[in-house]
Design a protein that fits this description.
The chain has four domains: 5-180, Immunoglobulin-like (Sandwich), CATH 2.60.40; 185-280, Immunoglobulin-like, CATH 2.60.40; 298-574, no CATH class; 584-706, Glutaredoxin, CATH 3.40.30. The chain is built from 22 helices and 25 strands. Strands 12, 13, 14, 15, 16, 17, 18, 19 and 20 form a nine-stranded mixed sheet that branches. It has a five-stranded mixed sheet with strand order 21-23-22-24-25, sandwiched between helices. Strand 13 (190-195) and strand 14 form a beta hairpin. The protein is globular, with a radius of gyration of 30 Å.
Length: 707
């Protein structure tokens, strides 16, 4: 897929707006105005049992706005439907009209720029009794211009009437036009091949059928490069299309062949051999329609990427990152302001931060692509990683305190405390790794953008967070006025080294607490025994150093065995699920476990709902809970207003919560939502106060506007 900076800036700006202005992103019928409003219309208000009736979602985009086909192309989101139907009524698959192409600087979108209708057939069973037939559906879609995208949704309903077999049924003539824009079935299957990164499709189409600017819209993702030019040849009764392949498929493919405005054929193609033959079909340009001018959006890119960098910069103020920064501060103090050393180490530190942040992002994208429901900081949902990180931080702390030195031992702590650029690189790597539990201002929108952006653009965002995290040390290295204030090396460095062991031990205590929350006190006690064993080995190693004995290889082997034993001793998934339930003890603000079913039930009963999503390893989440959520003032205000509280605990992997976060443009926690009766949710800021929450029950509109 071709990546373009202009489209990257447009999509990222769209996600920033979607996260920052949720009241405009999601609307209920009859409330705030939508940019692509939907109306639910029935072909007939009366339907006979045993028959079907067609419904239409009539979409009317405002000027400059557009909606998306079921496969949106390189970017965008197709339409979704969540039906609430009476017993005996089933909804079929949605039928979409022939879409249009919208190419913005190499990013291909499959869209509708004018009014269009999506049709769905409802089948009414023979045993459905005569009388009213209430139908409701919650639908979500993405509305975009060339510069802005807004997720939208609506809850639509209509009441039909089941009548007797002989009763008259009148039809809405508008559905004739709606159906005229649907692609017609092609009588025969086509054939496709993928060879040497070239995709070819042979379509049986009589030469008497006129085609105008033909284009093939494929439904399966990952087979063709959407933005590549499609070459079309006519060979007798065959139409042959050639374009760039992105992948192969052993299964048949489906799609729509567009042959003119609002005209096309639905087709299925089987894998086979296809050669490019015949003569080119005359058409204007390359068959790709472009929307909007090629105006400069460099400022949008700077703002978007700047948000990611600022979010990473603010991570330096978070308590989970500060202990690692102490290591870097000590290396700067040792350098004593030497320009060459400071710049070299700052660049190495930055490389470590950016590489790990990007690699974590790449793993995250890969897991999502494989179907796993994961989000940012996914690695800290695994107690094995936490145990290893606990051992590493503890070892670093004892090293800084002077228990042992590290000329021989092959541990991660050696990497972060050795001299030179290698030590700076691994210090940066560790800083990026432990920074993931923290989510600060600007980060939610930046990370949320990675959900819908192309992979290359998403990786740029992860790298931008890394640059922001490393920015203070880059400024020290390359701004002489700052560097000149660095203290000169001296005897004070030994005392400083022992002092910064304290935040390391505090970090270890935090990891012990987190591990206990995940695996329970019994398993934690066993884990601490292994950790004690590792500490005794390091103590033994340090004693040997004082006597001039070489114990490095033995120490390394024993440490590996101790760590492996600790990992194997950790409990399984079932035990951790029991522990998660036990963690839901009484709190100041009582809550129920989050589920979409429970949320829908509460909303149906018109009860206000506060839903929050947290994790034990999320420092921002815990700070908000201590400062605002779990406060008596909040509990009293919510109780007086009869607010139901749902809590989504993401400490351990939970696909339901992961998917819900993605629906709201978030890649991680925290996320705070307030549902006032009859209104769409207000997404609250990531930094909460008691006033933010208590104002919700008094004036939710004011709270939304404050954002």
């Amino acid at each position: 897929m071709t990546f373009d900076l202009r489209s990257f800036s447009l999509m990222l700006a769209a996600l920033f707006m979607a996260c920052a202005v949720p009241a405009h992103a999601q609307n209920k019928l009859g409330s705030k105005e939508l940019n692509v409003p939907a109306t639910l219309v029935a072909e007939s208000q009366r339907v006979q049992a045993g028959r079907s009736v067609t419904l239409a979602f009539v979409m009317k985009p405002k000027p400059t706005w557009h909606g998306y086909w079921e496969n949106p192309g390189d970017a965008g989101i197709g339409m979704s439907f969540d039906w609430t139907l009476p017993a005996g009524v089933t909804a079929g698959k949605a039928s979409y009209p022939v879409p249009e192409t919208l190419l913005i600087s190499g990013i291909m979108n499959y869209v509708y720029e004018g009014e269009y209708a999506v049709l769905v057939n409802l089948v009414v069973a023979e045993n459905v009794s005569q009388g009213p037939l209430p139908i409701s559906v919650k639908s979500e879609w993405l509305a975009c211009t060339d510069e802005v995208c807004v997720p939208e949704q609506d809850e639509l309903s209509i009441t039909l009437e089941v009548v007797s077999k002989g009763a008259a049924v009148s039809l809405n003539s508008a559905f004739n036009d709606y159906r005229a824009n649907l692609p017609r079935p092609l009588g025969s299957n086509g054939t496709f091949s993928v060879k040497n990164d070239i995709f070819r499709l042979s379509i049986p189409l009589p030469k008497s059928v006129a085609v105008e600017t033909p284009y093939f819209f494929i439904k399966e993702d990952g087979v063709v490069d959407y933005g590549a030019t499609q070459k079309v040849n006519r060979d007798g009764d065959l139409l042959i299309i050639e374009t760039t392949a992105r992948g192969d498929s052993a299964e048949p493919i489906n799609g729509v062949l567009k042959i003119g405005p609002h005209m096309g054929f639905m087709l299925t193609a089987d894998s086979g051999e296809v050669e490019m033959s015949g003569v080119p079909v005359a058409k204007g340009g390359d068959g790709n329609f472009t929307g909007g001018g090629d105006q400069s959006n460099a400022s949008l890119l700077l703002i978007a990427l700047g948000g990611a960098i600022v979010g990473g910069l603010l991570l330096n103020l978070m308590p989970c990152v500060f202990p690692i920064l102490s290591l870097k501060a000590m290396s700067l103090a040792k350098a004593g302001g030497d320009e060459g050393i400071v710049r070299r180490d700052a660049l190495a530190y930055t490389a470590g931060v950016v590489v790990v942040a990007t690699v974590l992002g790449g793993i995250l994208l890969g897991l999502r692509a494989s179907g796993a429901a994961v989000g940012w900081a996914f690695q800290l949902q695994d107690p094995r990683i936490i145990f290893v990180l606990l051992a590493l931080v503890t070892a670093i702390g004892f090293n800084l305190a002077g228990l042992f030195e590290l000329p021989n031992i092959s541990m991660g702590s050696k990497l972060t405390t050795r001299e030179g650029p290698a030590g700076s690189f691994w210090t940066g790597a560790l800083a990026a790794f432990v920074a993931t539990p923290c989510t600060g201002p600007f980060m939610a929108a930046a990370l949320g953008a990675t959900i819908v952006l192309p992979p290359i653009a998403a990786l740029i965002i992860f790298a931008g967070l890394g640059v922001g995290l490393a920015l203070p040390f880059l400024l020290i290295a390359f701004v002489p006025a700052i560097r000149s204030r660095l203290p000169k090396p001296g005897a004070w460095l030994d005392s400083f080294r022992k002092i910064i062991a304290v935040p390391m031990f505090l970090t270890a205590i935090g990891l012990v607490w987190l591990l206990g929350r995940q695996i329970g006190t019994d398993a934690l006690g066993l884990s601490l025994l292994f950790l004690l064993g590792a500490t005794l080995v390091l103590w033994w190693f340090g004693g040997g150093q004082m006597k001039g004995l070489s114990r490095g290889w033995v120490t390394t082997g024993v440490m590996i065995a101790v760590l492996a034993g600790g990992i194997l001793a950790l409990p399984g998934e079932e035990q951790m699920a029991v522990q998660k339930t036990a963690n839901s003890s009484s709190t100041t603000l009582p809550s129920e476990p989050f589920s979409e079913e429970r949320l829908a039930e509460l909303r149906t009963s018109n009860q206000p709902v506060f839903a929050y999503f947290t994790a034990d390893w999320c420092i921002t989440c815990k700070a908000n809970e201590a400062a605002a959520v779990q406060r008596q003032e909040t509990a009293d205000a919510f109780a007086a207003a009869n607010v139901a509280v749902l809590m989504g605990d993401w400490t351990r992997p939970d696909p339901v919560i992961s998917n819900f976060l993605e629906k709201h443009g978030r890649a991680g926690v925290p996320l705070y939502l307030y549902y006032a009766p009859g209104q769409e949710p207000v997404i609250l800021p990531q930094i909460l106060t008691v006033g933010t929450l208590t104002d919700l029950v008094n004036d939710p509109i004011k709270t939304a506007s404050r954002k």
